[in-house]
């Protein structure tokens, strides 16, 4: 798990997640998001295409990170959730709080529009 790409001019950070995420890995992801946030990257995309599972309790950490970003005009979008991971998000009650995309280009375009709306 790590920042694979930072789109500097658009201030979008893309994290590619893989394997399973437990509470410890989620806290590491939170710290990484806070770090890019401090660098001015307020739009974050979590590419979940290689993510096998996520611990439901750890989604509280992700939700609080989302709230933190939104206070500064940012957002976290989820890309390519498997049905198993989506079910965990739904069971934890946090699925509606995140925007979801199946294609990276659509996620990037939505992030660009949010950034423009905030600047406008």
Describe the main β-sheet briefly: 5 strands, mixed
CATH topology: Transcription Regulator spoIIAA
* Low confidence ranges: none
Global geometry: globular
Proportion of residues in helical segments: 40-55%
Distance between the termini: 33 Å
Report the mean per-residue pLDDT as an integer. Answer: 92
Strand segment count? 5
The SSE order reads: EEHEHEHEH
Would you tell me the structural class of the helices and strands?
Answer: alpha/beta
Number of helices: 4
Rg calc: 13 Å
Main CATH class: Alpha Beta
* CATH-scheme architecture: 2-Layer Sandwich
Number of domains: 1
**What amount of the residues lies in strands?**
25-35%
In CATH terms, the superfamily is STAS domain
The quaternary organization reads as single chain
Question: How would you sum up this structure, described in words?
Answer:
The protein has 120 residues and is of the alpha/beta class. It is built from 4 helices and 5 strands. It has a single domain (2-106), classed as Transcription Regulator spoIIAA (2-Layer Sandwich). It is 45% helix and 30% strand. It has a 5-stranded mixed sheet, sandwiched between helices. Helix 1 runs parallel beside helix 2 (59-71). It is globular and about 35 Å long.
What brief labels describe this structure?
4 helices; 5 strands; alpha/beta; 120 residues; five-stranded mixed sheet; single chain; Transcription Regulator spoIIAA
Quick structural gist:
By secondary structure, the chain is of the alpha/beta class. The chain has 4 helices and 5 strands. Helix 1 (23-38) runs parallel beside helix 2.
